[in-house]
Amino acid sequence: MKTIKILSMVVSLSLLFACKPQQKADLTVGTISGPETELVKLASKQAKQQFGITVKIVEFTDYHLPNEALADGTLDMNIYQHLPFLKASIVAKHYPIEAVGKTFIYPMSIYSHRYKSIASLPQKANIAIPNDPSNSSRALLLLQQAGLIVCNNKEQLTVHDIISNPKHLNIKELDAAQLPRILMDVDAAVINTSFAIPAGLTPGKDSIYVESKDSPYANLIVVKKNNDKSLLITQFIHALHGQAVIEKANELFGVGGAIPAW
Q1: Smaller CB count within 10 Å for the chain: N or C?
Q2: Max alpha carbon distance in the chain (Å)?
Q3: What is the SS3 assignment for 37?
Q4: Would the pLDDT of 8 be above 80?
Q5: Whole-model pTM?
């Protein structure tokens, strides 16, 4: 009988713990899968230690989904985009979202497995760039800064705004996440740091041209307007801007690969 009672207690305790609900997250944060997510994970740990905030991170591979999820209330915050992308998204979808802070500038770079410098790119070289509007514009601006093309003086550039192309470059727009994979098949590709690092490409070290440090393309902390979690969001931003996250960024991206923008 004693054995039966002990077994009954064990079963009862097991059922009690099995039925205990999991702690609900105070904040749900969306990121694009990649090294920046590691910074958000560290910031989440810091926020837990400093403020007792529980953070759930949702990773995406599609650039457009985190804003949609933020607008519909699935997320409380997303961390992955720069201002031109945010503006374009709001204009296109009328999302009630806004930036409340900055993270790092992750410089976009031009990479090539075939050539060692911008000057050595040949006539009619095949150049791959991202196909989403804001990153395509950013890539075209970078190609212009590298002296390869000249574009109209516009805030949002497209390939139709190229007014001078001395080398007759063949510029192909492809999905940003695919660019590291097709680098072997083109003469050069303009790749975001968030996709370059997981592919073993380091800005400055492996690139033939890198975006300048005064780039306006800082990544943003974006929330839904009129949300009721302003204090939690402020506390999380404080943790994200901490020295531990800065040091982790230098470790993940290399010095100069992630520049604090706040």
Answers
A1: N
A2: 92
A3: helix
A4: no
A5: 0.71
